[in-house]
Amino acid sequence: MSDKTKKVTQEELTKLQELHNSFVQAKVSLGDVELQKQNILEGIKQIRTMFFEMEEQLKETYGDNSVVNLETGEVTEKKE
Quick check: 74 and 68 in contact, CB under 8 A? Predict the structure, then answer.
């Protein structure tokens, strides 16, 4: 091999840089999506906790065997 330094063409260098930048941007986007996912999961956890608390309050008010129709608000007894 000669002592002369080899270089890629400008076209090859540009394409290589574009691909690298696309890869980096995709990784950043993936990180953003993961953060959004974590925020959504935390929101779901909070909603479930609030739902459980509301369910316990309703049991105290209407009894353990009560069922609430989510469309009408009607409370009936659970059928065995």
Answer: yes
Q: Using one digit for the tens of pLDDT, what is the confidence trace for 4-61?
A: 899 999 999 999 999 999 999 999 999 999 999 999 999 999 999 999 999 999 999 9
User: How many Å separate Cα 6 from the centre of its chain?
Assistant: 47
Boundaries of every domain in the chain: 10-77
Q: Who has greater pLDDT, 62 or 3? A: 62
Question: Please, what is the Cα angle at 28 between 22 and 30, to 5 degrees?
Answer: 100
Strand partners, 67: 76
| Contacts (Cβ under 8 Å, ≥6 apart) of 78 | 65, 66, 67
* Token output for 16: 């290589």
